[in-house]
C-alpha cells in the first residue's frame, strides 16, 4: 500500500500524520485519565456521581470543537492550511502540559476542577481545527487515484495517538505504585507532550502549502467569509458528513473516551496495566484497518468501504460486550481487535470523502465543521451516556443498543452521499454546479 508514495509526498503525509498523532495523544491522555484518575482527584466531592461528571468533562470540550472548526476553517480557507495546522498543534500541546501541572482539589479546592475544565476546552478548540487541515494537506497533495490512501495517513494519527497515550499511562502505572500513580504518576504523560510539541513543530514547519490552495491564492478566488457560502449552498452536506462521523465516533469513544478502560478496571476488576495494554493492541488493529480502508476506498469507492465498516460494527456489537463481560484478558484483546476493524473501515476513507464533498474555496470550513459537529453528536458524551446507561440498567447491553442505534444512523446516511472519487479537486472543480441535489444524486 505504501508503494506509489514518492519522496516528495512522503514529507507531506508524515507531517499530516505526525501532527494528528501528537494532537490526539494529548486529547486521549486526558480522556483516558478521566476514567482512571480525575474522578478521585478532582471530583471526589460528588460521591457516586464523580465518575459520570469526570466523563462529562471529556464531552464538554466537544461543544467547543465547532467554534475551533469555524475559526480554523475561516483562516485555512483564507490564508492556507499550513499556518493553521502549526497553530492548532501548539495550542493543544501547551494546554496538555498545563493540565499535567494543575494541583488537585485537595490542594487548591474548587479552583482545581475549574482549571481542568478550562484547559480541556482549549483542547477542544484545537481539536476542532486540527483534523480538517491535516486531512486536506494530505488529500490535496495526493496524485489522482491515491486520495483515499493519502487521506488515510492523517487518520492513523488517531490510533497511533491512542497507542502512545495508553502506552505512556501504562508505563507510568507500571513504574509507580497505585497510590503514587494517582498522586503524581499520571502527570508524566501530560508533561511529555512538551517533547512532542517541539517534534511536531519542526516537521510541520518544513511542509509546503497545499498546491490546490496555492491555485486558489493565485487566481484570487478565495472567499472573504467561507462559512456563509458553505452553509448557504452545502448545509445539508455538512449535516450528512456529521452523521457519518458521529456513527464512527460514538463507537470509537468507548476506548478513546475511556469507558472500556474504566468498566474493565472498576467493574470487572482487571489490572489497569493489562487493560491499557489490551487497548494498545487494539489501536494497532485500528491503525492497520484504517490504512486498508483508505487503500480500498481508491479501488471500490469511499461509500462502499463505509458500508462494509458500519456492517462490521453492527454485527460485532453484541459479541464485543459478551467477550468484555467475561473479564478474561485474552478475550478482551480479541473483542477490542475485532471491534477496531469496523472503526478503521469507517475512518480510513473519511479524509478523501470529506475533501471531495466541498469546493476548494470552502473546503477547510466544510470538512472541519462536518467533523466537529459529528464529534459533538457522536463522541462528546458517549462515555457519559454509556456509564449512565450501565448504571441505570445494570447491564452493558443497554450500551450495546445505544451504539447499534448510532451505527444504523451512519449506515443510512451513506445512501444520501454521492461518491465523487474521480472528481478533480482544483479550480476546475469550481466550474461544476455544486448544488446539493447533484452531490446527493
What features would you highlight for this structure?
single chain; 441 residues; mainly alpha; Growth Hormone, Chain: A; 22 helices; disordered C terminus; membrane; Sugar_transporter_CS; transport; transmembrane
Pick out the low-confidence regions. Answer: 429-441
The portion of residues assigned to helices is: over 70%
The gyration radius over C-alpha positions equals 21 Å
Task: Specify the overall morphology.
Answer: globular
Main beta sheet: none
State the helix count. 22
Q: Structural class given helices, strands, pairing?
A: mainly alpha
CATH topology: Growth Hormone, Chain: A
Give the strand tally: 0
What name goes with the CATH superfamily?
MFS general substrate transporter like domains
Mean pLDDT: 86
Question: What is the chain-wise order of helices and strands?
Answer: HHHHHHHHHHHHHHHHHHHHHH
The N- to C-terminal Cα distance equals: 31 Å
Give the domain tally.
1
Report the CATH C-level class: Mainly Alpha
Amino acid at each position: 500500500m505504501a508503494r506509489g508514495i514518492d519522496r516528495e509526498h512522503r514529507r507531506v503525509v508524515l507531517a499530516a500524520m505526525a501532527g494528528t498523532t501528537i494532537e490526539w495523544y494529548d486529547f486521549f491522555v486526558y480522556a483516558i485519565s478521566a476514567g482512571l484518575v480525575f474522578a478521585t482527584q478532582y471530583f471526589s466531592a460528588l460521591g457516586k456521581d464523580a465518575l459520570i461528571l469526570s466523563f462529562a468533562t471529556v464531552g464538554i470540550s466537544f461543544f467547543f470543537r465547532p467554534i475551533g472548526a469555524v475559526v480554523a476553517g475561516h483562516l485555512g480557507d483564507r490564508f492556507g492550511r499550513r499556518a493553521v495546522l502549526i497553530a492548532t498543534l501548539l495550542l493543544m500541546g501547551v494546554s496538555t502540559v498545563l493540565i499535567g501541572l494543575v494541583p488537585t482539589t485537595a490542594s487548591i479546592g474548587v479552583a482545581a476542577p475549574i482549571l481542568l475544565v478550562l484547559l480541556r476546552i482549549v483542547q477542544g478548540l484545537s481539536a476542532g481545527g486540527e483534523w480538517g487541515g491535516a486531512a486536506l494537506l494530505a488529500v490535496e497533495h495526493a496524485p489522482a487515484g491515491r486520495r483515499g490512501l493519502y487521506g488515510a495517513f492523517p487518520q492513523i494519527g488517531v490510533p497511533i495517538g491512542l497507542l502512545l497515550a495508553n502506552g505512556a499511562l501504562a508505563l507510568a502505572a507500571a513504574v509507580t505504585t497505585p497510590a503514587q500513580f494517582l498522586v503524581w504518576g499520571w502527570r508524566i504523560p501530560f508533561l511529555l507532550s512538551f517533547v512532542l510539541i517541539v517534534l511536531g513543530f519542526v516537521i510541520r514547519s518544513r511542509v509546503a502549502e497545499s498546491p490546490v490552495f496555492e491555485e486558489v491564492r493565485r487566481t484570487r478566488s478565495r472567499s472573504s467569509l467561507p462559512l456563509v457560502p458553505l452553509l448557504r449552498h452545502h448545509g445539508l452536506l455538512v449535516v450528512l458528513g456529521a452523521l457519518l462521523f458521529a456513527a464512527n465516533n460514538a463507537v470509537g469513544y468507548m476506548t478513546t473516551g475511556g469507558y472500556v478502560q474504566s468498566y474493565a478496571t472498576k467493574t470487572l476488576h482487571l489490572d489497569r496495566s493489562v487493560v491499557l495494554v489490551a487497548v494498545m493492541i487494539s489501536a494497532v488493529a485500528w491503525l492497520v484497518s484504517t490504512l486498508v480502508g483508505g487503500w480500498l476506498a481508491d479501488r471500490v469507492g469511499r461509500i462502499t468501504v463505509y458500508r462494509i465498516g458500519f456492517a462490521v460494527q453492527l454485527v460485532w456489537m453484541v459479541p464485543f460486550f459478551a467477550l468484555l463481560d467475561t473479564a478474561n484478558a485474552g478475550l478482551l484483546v480479541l473483542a477490542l481487535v475485532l471491534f477496531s476493524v469496523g472503526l478503521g473501515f469507517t475512518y480510513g476513507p473519511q479524509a478523501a470523502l470529506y475533501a471531495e464533498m466541498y469546493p476548494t474555496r470552502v473546503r477547510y470550513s466544510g470538512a472541519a465543521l462536518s467533523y466537529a459537529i459529528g464529534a459533538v453528536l457522536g463522541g462528546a458524551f458517549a462515555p457519559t451516556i454509556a456509564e449512565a446507561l450501565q448504571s441505570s440498567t445494570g447491564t452493558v447491553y443497554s450500551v450495546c443498543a445505544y451504539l447499534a442505534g448510532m451505527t444504523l444512523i451512519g449506515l443510512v446516511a451513506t445512501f444520501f452521499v454521492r461518491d465523487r472519487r474521480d472528481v478533480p479537486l482544483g479550480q476546475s472543480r469550481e466550474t461544476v454546479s455544486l448544488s446539493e441535489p447533484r452531490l446527493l444524486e
